[in-house]
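Collaboration report, partner site 2.

Our partner group contributed sequences for two proteins of shared interest, and the home lab folded both. The records are reproduced in the order in which they were received, starting with the first partner submission.
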Amino acid sequence: MGLGDWVKPWTGAGYRHIPQDSPRDVLDLTYSLKAKDNRWNEQGEPTLYFAKDHGVVAAEWARHLKVKRTPKLAQLFKPRAVYRCRIASVRLIDLCDSAVWNDLRLDDLPYRFTDTRLARALAHLARYSTDAEGLIVPSMAFLDDLSRWDVVLFHEKVQDRKFVTSKRVVGTLTYETIRPYLAASAPEQAHPAP
């Protein structure tokens, strides 16, 4: 089978966060298009990331602060509004599925996804060579628990229809919210990429 044979419809909820006082919409792509270090897309590729739940949102934010900044700087961040977005039927490839891994003939998954080059190569293949509109990927904050995932949507493939049918604020991320995750060691550090 090829990667395109693993595309399946998916409907569900995903969580995103933005600064509480942001004038931008939670689906705004301005900053994501500028990011150079996203795991599942190259700079300039319009991509939206959604976490499975509030805990994954908090852990992923803490992981980014831990890896890209320092925990002391995290205390200076303004509270962030957490949105629950209802995502209409999209076509995804589930990279948390070991059957997909076996078909790809890749070893040491999901830990090899910590290799950004490999992650981007798979996303590129899915984005440009299949009808997939995105991916379900393991959360880098919970690599030991594949039930904690993220959805990565290729915006150019879903933008012509209403792919998010509702969005509402369901909580807040503060330094206190993420402090436990800042203290924890990241599973990806326990299994470095080859």
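Second partner submission, folded after the first:
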Amino acid sequence: MLTYDFHESIGYWLCISASAMQEALNDELSRHGITYRQFQVLGWLAHDGEELTQADLAAKMRIEPPTLVGLLDRMEQQGWITRGNFPGDRRKKLVRVAPAAEEVWETMVAALLRVRARATARLTPDQIESLKEMLQTIHETLTESAKRPVAAHH
């Protein structure tokens, strides 16, 4: 039979906690007619300087570029983003935050802050800080090891 010590696994707790955070945020956002994917688009744009190529945005969101196109079409119609040609490469499309996104972004951030408060309600400020530091260390460790070249086996 399949056995694994799930409850002792850091990966298990990270994954189910991330999933619970996403579900809670999606629930908060849906009350305002906003989807989690729309939040992700504006979130990555806000995080990375308010413009990204469509390919980079799809990679960050872990979705296929064709899936992203429909989402961006709707967001462009809503006036939340604009798309234009990438300087020097007309095949690439650059996605930018539009001024009309500011109001919806404030709604998104308020929802995110409510979820963050719920998620950390039973933690002390020191525990929250320690948790952030530990998660950052795990992230750095895993991303650093992913970037190292694989040694050739002889």
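Feedback sent to the partner group on the second submission included the following. The domain at 20-120 is CATH 1.10.10.10 (Arc Repressor Mutant, subunit A). The radius of gyration is 19 Å.
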